[in-house]
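User: Could you check the structure of this?
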Amino acid sequence: MIHYMEPLTYTIYSKSPMDVIKKYRLRADPQGSVEILDSFWPLDSQQDCAPALLVYADLAASPDPRCVETASLIRSRYLDS
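Assistant: Sure, the predicted structure tokens are below.
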């Protein structure tokens, strides 16, 4: 979203997670770096990122100070008006 740091875990939101798993031939791995979750908002075909508020919340909830710093940057760029 802001290309500030390289994520340790990639989160993919999809209306059909099984299609993503099949398309990219992903296999379950408890130590893996990809998580696929159901999107709970209407997806737009032009949308390539989750809503800023969701990205902010995910990062702000992390115990990692780098994630909290990135959340602050997202908040100031996209959410503060």
